[in-house]
Amino acid sequence: MTTTFPQGFLWGGAIAANQAEGAYLEDGKGLSIVDLLPTGEKRRSIMKGNVPSLTPLEGEFYPSHEAIDFYHRYPEDIVWLAEMGFKVLRVSIAWARIFPTGEEEAPNEAGLLFYDRLFDELLRYGIQPVVTLAHFDVPVHLIEKYGSWRHRQLITLFEKYAKTVFARYQHKVKYWMTFNEINMLLHLPFLGAGLVFEEGEDVEQIKYQAAHHQLVASALAVKACHEIIPDAQIGCMLAAGSFYPFTCNPEDVYQGMEKDRESYFFIDVQSRGAYPGYAKRFFRDRGLDIQMEAEDAEILKQHTVDYIGFSYYSSRTTSTDPEVNQKMTSGNVFGSVANPYLAKSEWGWTIDPLGMRITANQLHDRYQKPLFVVENGLGAHDEMNADQGIDDDYRIDYLQKHITAMSEAIEDGVPIIGYTCWAPIDIVSASSGEMRKRYGYIYVDRDNEGNGTLQRIKKKSFAWYQKVIQSNGADVENNL
């Protein structure tokens, strides 16, 4: 089948500062969330808020500290991305590079200069930066002093950071996003929002209070972006993927709706400008008292996002049957019953291309705003062949089917402005801390223990994606 995409469609890829840059304390950068996440069995518990220390511990390996050294190697990497024909590269700015503690009067010039150089290099090759302000990123000092986003002071500090980078890069960056996968706050609250919990605390109260502060901060960032860069577009970002009811039992169907609403809640506020009725009832039913200032409602109402960015890796399935719930997939952060109709990746993620089309349609039906697919990809273990290449046909197959599903959503009338696959070059996995879980078209010689030369090598999927971009998606089924 021939797929069709609009002229000017934004083809590219996506990485994050904390998973790619390394240089974790270089040029004045402060500690950030991911700098405290080691590999190994403790990682998931820490991401949930059980944090043993706000400084790196002896004897632990922290993969973000060097990552793939994008901080020093970005010129080389951008040459590869330009060869593939990228129109855009989604990156994040490390908040702690700009304000190392989050509270400095003046920004760190060395940090600002790094992103000047990065954006200039991208633009030199005709690649537009798409910039996320906060991608699992809070300066650790703000966690120590304020308890991170549980405290309202972070709204003020985030707004200052946002205004600083908008002013600095107003002539270089036209596409922005506020918080990466903002709904992750509910599932991995330390990773998503720097929240650390003490024994006996009301975790749900703290999470939703922090969510309110992030939503107000997001609206104020939208306001600042529109004022400082009038021709810019600024969006929100959702970890998306619809919940299917396991059966047509109305109890399962209702639970699927409720599970979807856990995530849509954030985008309802950012896109529609007000708390939905179901969220207000949720707070009432659970006795949650979300502290809001008098001006918050008007801030949320007046400063909604221009587009909806979302990640899509898999769909999810839910059931009210205790026996069915014993068969859960291992890899999904959101908790999902195994779907008997779908295959899974090596890491237990359900593979569901049609779910991409379903999700895109649901988002457009709900919000009536442009969509931007800012993450989609297959984490897999890649092996070198006899010629020191990587034949990643499994990745090509996954991406072919998802891009085709995206084109079907566009045919359905869904306005999708671009596609930035995750991640065009192998980087550290956010969920597991592994290098072995690879997504890229470009292999990076580094293992889970930090060994390797960091040499970059093209995979088979490199030439495949190059042809997809050259044909504006028409040649998605090219088999090289």
UniProtKB/TrEMBL annotation:
A biological process term (GO) from this entry: carbohydrate catabolic process
Signal sequence range: none
GO molecular function: beta-glucosidase activity
Keyword terms of this UniProt record: Glycosidase, Hydrolase
Pfam families: Glyco_hydro_1
Keyword match Acetylation: no
Active site residues of this protein: 375 (nucleophile)
InterPro entries, A to Z: GH, GH_1_N_CS, Glyco_hydro_1, Glyco_hydro_1_AS
Similarity comment text for this entry: Belongs to the glycosyl hydrolase 1 family.
Protein name: Amygdalase
Naturally occurring in which organism (per UniProt): Paenibacillus kyungheensis
Phylogenetic lineage: Bacteria, Bacillati, Bacillota, Bacilli, Bacillales
